[in-house]
Amino acid sequence: MKATAIWTLVAVLAVPALEEGVCQNEVRILEKTYTGEIVEGPNWARTETFGFAAQAFIPNCEIWLSGEWVEPVRSPDGGGEYGVFIEKKADRVTVNGRTYVSLQDTTIQWYKDEPVPMSEKSLRSYAAEKFELEAIPHREIEGAYVVGGEVFLPGVPKAFKVEEKADSVIVTVQPKFFGEIDHILVEYKGQKVGYSLYKGPRPKAAQLNEQTLDAAFRNLVDACQPGRIVIKGRGYSQTYPLSEKEALVEALNLIPDLAVPDKPEPDGTPIYEPLEIHGYLFISPLIADFVNSYRRRGDQ
Q1: Distance between CA 291 and CA 66 in Å, rounded?
Q2: What's the CA gap between 262 and 271, in Å, rounded?
Q3: Which end of the chain has less neighbouring CB within 10 Å, N or C?
Q4: pTM
């Protein structure tokens, strides 16, 4: 947490949220937004704002979100400073009143309480669920699993037949791969996806989505600092001193003209070759955001 950088506001029952109690050095809990049962599990994380709304104000800071400049706002405490005001609400995270991530955004695959029928799962997902249900830890070999009489040794890729799908995948057991939880890597046609073998209690969809909002809020708070310019979007986060604003803006404005498309992703998502402009290096996700922002302005 940044010293003297983050201003926060404490909400009191029957008292307006933006009351006089402004505290430095930490992000304070404001009000509870999720009241469901909290399931403790070792494969998912909580922070002090999990299940709560939160606010943070970073003075003397500017930010570009997804290729668009967000106008600074005045400090909510009435102090007169301008900067970045980040809010985590029940269903979204906003920056200076603009939505950064929202549970209503259909372009994001949010968690659902209704499980996907096995018949609709992809081969990798189907195989991973089947493996998890049938896997039994080996009695003698640490980190190994037995599935249908077949032994899967840790770190050794092995074919796993999925008779129901008339196909097979390659499974590699990864003991203590993440968060002290055993995982498997499921490979099909050259693409690998990791799946947890954790069999204990799991969080519900509302909790997982809340966790996503919490992580987005924390990520923004960590990225924003007084005296800095932040350029942020999905897949990238870059910061520069405010003293470089003129040169940086000039470089950002050149991105749409200098962007060179490369081979797109299989789903059609454009990929751009990295750009170095006036000493600033920009990667594909950032370039795509600025190109799309330029096109949107041209259509208006």
Answers
A1: 10
A2: 5
A3: C
A4: 0.65
